[in-house]
Automatic annotation (TrEMBL):
Residues 15-56 form the RING-type domain. Keywords: Metal-binding, Zinc, Zinc-finger. It holds the Pfam family zf-C3HC4. Coiled coil: none annotated. InterPro entries: B30.2/SPRY, B30.2/SPRY_sf, Butyrophylin_SPRY, ConA-like_dom_sf, SPRY_dom, TRIM/RBCC, Znf_B-box, Znf_C3HC4_RING-type. This is Tripartite motif-containing protein 64-like. It comes from the Eukaryota. The keyword Protease does not apply.
């Protein structure tokens, strides 16, 4: 192939981003093709919606398959370029004065023909330089795909950790208000106890905030390290065959695995239990007996599935979150509350997913029972990846306290617009709905799920 023909051939197989021969090429919706690594890095750096770097058309999809035909042609183009530049790239063996045209896969060195037949190399596997280089590129590309996928997961975790930090800071202010209301409304609680409780909360909050911010910083550094590693591997793949093979020793064989093993674990913010002496005894003077009726068993309950979707976030997979063969047990109170103060307890021991609280009659009759419905005041416990999380409903808010292991007490002050939940065994406050405008009859609600 003459120089002009080679130049035209290679220009058609050149990525417009890196101006080098295609590496793991992809063709996007508009028909333009790019190296997958170049397109990934380009789109990540762009602040605008992902568009074609050439024509700016916005593709409908971003998960493209490798263009196999283009990949093979790119390999041929590299081979043609290597043959054309043969004299400048080849190395001469000092011992035998012959060109080094073989690659020893065991010793990771380039050899001439006679050297490959020496006793120290004769039993090893050898390949022509170009074939060995292409095989090495393919291995590096596979490693890069794994690394990029891992980095995308890291970015999702980083966003979740940053959102968690903001959510926790907002929660601290709400938690202080919950505690203050408890001490104001219950006569036997002392002002000195309230002060100690709030001071302990403030100190814990500072420590947890520092942990969260440290986690965000560590994840940010790790994500940047992965990106730099990805860029280095991309540059290595674009090297000429001989240079690529001679630089393989600088790439640790388990580098991407070591990164995966050292991914920072997210912080699980959780306040310690703070017992309030005499609390449960005072509440039990308002205790009522709740008769349950309208019991139901179902395999599908949107309120939990909505919460799982919320936990997964916008970047989470679009899948059915209902565990196979799971069974939900639902029941409602036979009577509704329309005024007064009422206290009752529910045992959640042995149940990993549950929802308890109050709902209005319309929600009890609805078939969808969605989490974003109005007229529900629920405390929900959900187990994901061996981690239990507590949330209150509408809008769903995380409650950064320990999961109760036994009886949960509920105190409704209908006229005062407050519903509070308590860990009976630890004599502590779980959370409260404050300053609510209860305007319709409210029924006690209980739901538990067993896998």
């Amino acid at each position: 192939m003459d120089s002009d023909t080679l130049q035209v051939f290679q220009s058609e197989l050149t990525c417009s981003i890196c101006t080098k021969c295609f590496l793991d090429p992809v063709t996007i919706d508009c028909g333009h093709s790019f190296c997958r690594p170049c397109l990934s890095l380009c789109w990540e750096e762009s602040q605008t919606p992902r568009s074609c770097p050439e024509c700016r058309e916005i593709p409908e999809w971003s998960d493209f398959k490798t263009n196999i035909a283009l990949k093979r042609l790119a390999s041929l183009a590299r081979q043609a370029r290597a043959d054309h530049d043969h004299s400048s790239e080849e190395q001469i063996c000092v011992t035998h004065q012959e060109a080094k045209g073989l690659f020893c896969e065991v010793d990771q060195t380039v050899l001439c023909g006679p050297c490959s037949e020496c006793p120290e190399h004769a039993a090893h596997s050898h390949s022509p330089i170009h074939r060995a280089a292409e095989e090495s590129r393919e291995k590096l590309v596979k490693r890069m795909r794994t690394l990029w996928k891992l980095r995308e997961e890291m970015k999702i975790s980083l966003n979740q950790e940053a959102n968690k930090t903001q959510s926790f800071e907002n929660y601290v202010a709400l938690r202080k208000a919950m505690i203050t209301v408890q001490y104001q409304r219950i006569p036997l609680l002392l002002h000195e106890d309230e002060k100690m409780h709030l001071e302990a909360l403030e100190q814990e909050a500072k420590e947890i905030c520092q942990q969260l911010k440290g986690s965000v910083f560590t994840m940010t550094e790790q994500a940047e390290s992965m990106r730099e590693m990805y860029r280095e591997l991309t540059e290595m793949c674009h090297k000429p065959d001989m240079e690529l093979l001679q630089s393989l020793g600088s790439v640790p064989s388990c580098r991407s695995k070591s990164v995966q093993l050292h991914l920072p674990q997210p912080v699980v913010p959780e306040f310690n239990v703070w017992p309030i002496p005499g609390l449960i005894d005072w509440l039990r003077q308002f205790q009522v007996y709740i008769e349950l009726h309208n019991e139901r068993v179902t395999h599908h309950l949107p309120v939990f599935e909505d919460l799982r979707c919320l936990l997964a976030g916008p970047d989470g997979p679009d899948v059915d979150y209902t565990p196979p063969r799971s069974i939900y047990f639902l029941s409602w109170g036979a009577e509704s509350f329309t005024s007064g103060q009422h206290y009752w307890e529910v045992d959640v021991a042995g149940c990993c997913n549950w929802a308890i609280g109050l709902c209005n009659d319309s929600w009890a009759r609805e078939s969808d029972m969605a989490l974003d419905s109005k007229g529900i005041f629920l405390l929900l416990c959900i187990k994901e990846n061996s981690q239990h999380s507590l949330f209150t409903s509408f809008p769903p808010l995380p409650q950064y306290v320990k999961k109760p292991l036994g009886q949960v007490g509920m105190f409704l002050d209908y006229d005062g617009g407050i519903l509070s939940f308590y860990d009976v065994a630890n004599r502590s406050l779980i959370c409260s709905f404050l300053y609510c405008s209860f305007s319709s009859p409210l029924k006690p609600f209980l739901c538990s799920r067993y896998p």
